[in-house]
Design a protein that fits this description.
Length: about 250
């Protein structure tokens, strides 16, 4: 029995796009936009001893321009950092905070991980999809709201949690979630349960790129009683964590 050699070609073919994209997605920025983004990119890259370490904030920067990661944004990041478009796209498609399709002014994320789900997260997501007439990850016809389920955002003590542009709305119900999206669509003032005042999705992306956040409440680090409930119970019952001996014999 003889075997024939198998040849495997690695890497994208020349006609392949480095990022799944929509037909009308921009493939390059206008000169004035490019100049403005280049100035911002220089400030971002200067923070890092290795320029390619700036890729994550640069992706947020270009997302703040288009509302999602477009071929134009991928090409811009690649040029700024001396990377290939495929390398940039590989990162952009790995992290869920980088959007692959146009996003509304408000990204309404409903946590459906275990605790939030059993506390009502699944019901909230189903209610919002039916109420707004959209599916998971889709945007309303007016371009205001994109709804999607999100992974745990470490707010289990306030479950079920809804996030709008990554700001917390705690202890939600289907009714309060409907009221929330009604306020967002009408332009009425909507305040998170905690944290900074809301801004648009594009403005949030720019903040995530590392530019100053001057919103009221942005630096609020106050811990609420719900978060400390477990610690309080442990102290009331004299519970402590076991001490694990150090490998070098020194006391812990």
């Amino acid at each position: 029995m003889t075997s024939e050699p198998v040849f495997i070609e690695f890497g994208p073919k020349s006609q392949e796009l480095p990022l799944p994209t929509l037909p009308d997605a921009p493939r390059e920025f206008p000169p004035d936009v490019r100049a403005r983004l280049s100035e911002d990119a220089d400030a971002i890259v200067a923070r890092y001893p290795n320029s390619r370490s700036a890729l994550l904030p640069l992706l947020h920067l270009v997302q703040s321009e288009d509302g999602y990661i477009t071929p134009a944004g991928v090409a811009f990041c690649a040029e700024q950092l001396g990377l290939t478009a495929a390398e940039v796209a590989a990162v952009a498609t790995f992290y869920s905070m980088y959007r692959r399709s146009p996003t509304g002014e408000y990204l309404v994320g409903v946590c459906t991980n275990t605790l939030c789900a059993i506390m009502g997260g699944d019901a909230i997501l189903a209610e919002l999809e039916e109420y707004l007439g959209v599916g998971n990850g889709e945007t309303t016809a007016d371009g205001k709201i994109t709804v999607e389920h999100i992974e745990c955002n470490a707010a289990c003590d306030f479950a079920p949690v809804v996030m709008v542009n990554w700001e917390f709305f705690d202890n939600q119900t289907p009714d309060t979630a409907r009221t929330l999206v009604d306020g967002l669509r009408s332009g009425s003032p909507v305040s998170p349960t905690r944290g900074a005042t809301l801004c648009t999705f594009k403005e949030t992306a720019r903040l995530l790129a590392g530019f100053p956040d001057t919103r009221p409440g942005a630096s609020d680090t106050q811990v609420r009683p719900e978060t400390l409930a477990g610690l309080r119970v442990a102290r009331e019952h004299g519970m402590t964590a076991p001490r694990i001996p150090r490998s070098d014999g020194r006391p812990t």
